[in-house]
Amino acid sequence: MGRYLGMVRRRREEMDIIEEELINRNNIEEDKSKREKRKRKIKVGFFLDEELVKEFKRFCIMKYGVYEYGMYSEEVELALRHWISLGKHGKVGNPSNKVQGNKPILVFQQVLNYIKQKYGLDIGYSTELAKRFFIEGIKAVRGSSDKTVKKWLNIFKELGFIKESESNIYVVNIGV
Question: Is 107 in the same domain as 166?
Answer without folding.
Answer: yes
